[in-house]
Specification:
The protein is an alpha/beta fold. Helix content is 36%, strand content 27%. It has 14 helices and 14 strands. Strand 12 and strand 13 form a beta hairpin. The structure holds adenosine-5'-triphosphate. GO terms for molecular function: ATP binding.
């Protein structure tokens, strides 16, 4: 539904040039919710605003619903833009207009008749759960209600694509959940394709089918959540399923295994114990009901060094369970077997590389992420 190819954008001014987009490519399938995650300054807003060409990229192409927007004259572009809704962090409502007046605004601009407008506004307010608030002014609404107005307004022209610019960043956690639930519901009921930018991993966990991490104008990793979880060394997977820093346990091997999809119901620990006659301990774990799938990450301790456990590690790898040595009790450099080594040898080298695979500090990258919810 949205296809972006090699987008570049450099802001120039006062002898200074900032590369906001450094060759970004992205595909969002029809009916998908796609989250772009990144810290402030990563280029997320520039990317999102490039999708409807509110921001003109220096080069690259943007295609939405089969129409290449970057090739259109301004008048045609204005028409195509009406098929793309957008919601904003601070709602961007007109304070002098009522809820109904705000939602009706885009319909007025496109010349929809008064009667049709009134019927459509009533329908939209019901869709976002704001029946009965048509006559209220923005100042009389809570943040969550304001965002509902923003969503109703964005959907007025019956778009197939919704762009969400940090739509929940100004809201408290409970309201955030209700707005995310609404977006998810609209995605299902209307088949709405949603591209959102956020700095909150929780948003990705709750509603996204696919995600990307953006840093310095580039995607360092991207993909469908189910694929990402199966990708050894994945930074996104580590952020989705967080474990604390790994301890050093001399003479033991600490491994982090990710179980999702077909593996979620597998009696993995019993199998390991049986096949390799080893006493597997669980050191920690996290299980998440992600929008895309149920998934978990377990931190296991196997007696003996990584070398002693070679066969068990190989079996995990062959079984297709992403496995990383979190801390072998021996310096990674001494054996050459570190998380990156496992990642590379599990057949995920390409994916790990595209993820900006962590090097010698891999275990810290996986397990030692900060507590802010921001990607590293
Ligand atoms: N109009 C502009 N003129 C000059 N530089 C800009 C402009 N807009 C953005 N930038 C710069 O481009 C880079 C990317 O900005 P962008 O707003 O896209 O990032 P972001 O990830 O959305 O961050 P934030 O969440 O803080 O908005 C930043 O370094 C920013 O300072």
């Amino acid at each position: 539904m949205i296809s972006i190819r090699d987008l570049r954008k450099v802001y120039r001014g006062r002898g200074r040039a900032v590369t906001a987009l450094d060759g970004v490519s992205l595909d969002v399938a029809e009916g998908e919710i796609y989250g772009v995650l990144g810290r402030s300054g990563a280029g997320k807003s520039t990317l999102l605003r490039s999708v409807n060409l509110l921001e003109r990229p220096d080069s690259g192409t943007v295609t939405v619903g089969g129409v290449e927007l970057t090739g259109l004259p301004e008048r045609r572009l204005r028409r195509e833009r009406q098929r793309i809704g957008m919601i904003h962090q601070h709602f961007a409502l007109l304070s002098s207009r009522t809820v109904a007046g705000n939602v009706a605004f885009p319909l007025e601009v496109t010349g929809v008749s008064r009667a049709t407008r009134a019927a459509r506004v009533a329908e939209l307010l019901e869709l976002v759960g704001l029946e009965g608030r048509a006559g209220a002014y923005p100042a009389q609404l809570s943040g969550g209600q304001k965002q509902r107005v923003g969503i109703a307004r964005a959907l007025a022209g019956d778009p197939k694509v919704l762009l969400s610019d940090e739509a929940t960043s100004a809201l408290d956690p409970e309201t955030t959940h209700s707005i995310l639930a609404l977006l998810s519901d609209l995605n299902k009921r209307l088949g709405l394709t949603i591209l959102l930018i956020t700095h909150e991993m929780d948003v990705v966990k709750r509603i996204c089918h696919s995600a990307a991490i953006m840093r310095d104008g580039r995607f360092t990793e991207s993909g469908r959540i189910a694929e990402v979880l199966a990708r050894p060394g994945s930074e996104l997977a580590a952020e989705l399923l967080r474990l604390g820093p790994a301890p050093e346990l001399p003479g033991q091997t600490v491994v982090d295994v990710t179980v999702s999809g077909d593996h979620a119901d597998r009696p993995l620990i019993a199998e390991l114990a049986r096949r390799f006659e080893t006493d597997v301990r669980i050191l920690g774990g996290t299980v998440e009901e992600l929008a895309a799938t149920r998934a978990g990450r377990l931190r296991l301790v196997l007696p003996g060094s990584a070398d002693d456990n070679r066969a068990a590690l190989a079996w995990l790898r062959e079984t297709g369970i992403p496995t990383e040595i979190a801390g072998s009790g021996v310096p990674a450099g001494a054996t050459g077997v570190g998380a990156a080594g496992v990642a590379a040898s599990t057949g995920g080298a390409g994916a790990a590389a595209s993820a900006g695979a962590p090097d010698a500090g891999a275990s810290a990258g996986v397990a030692g992420a900060d507590e802010t919810g921001d990607p590293a």
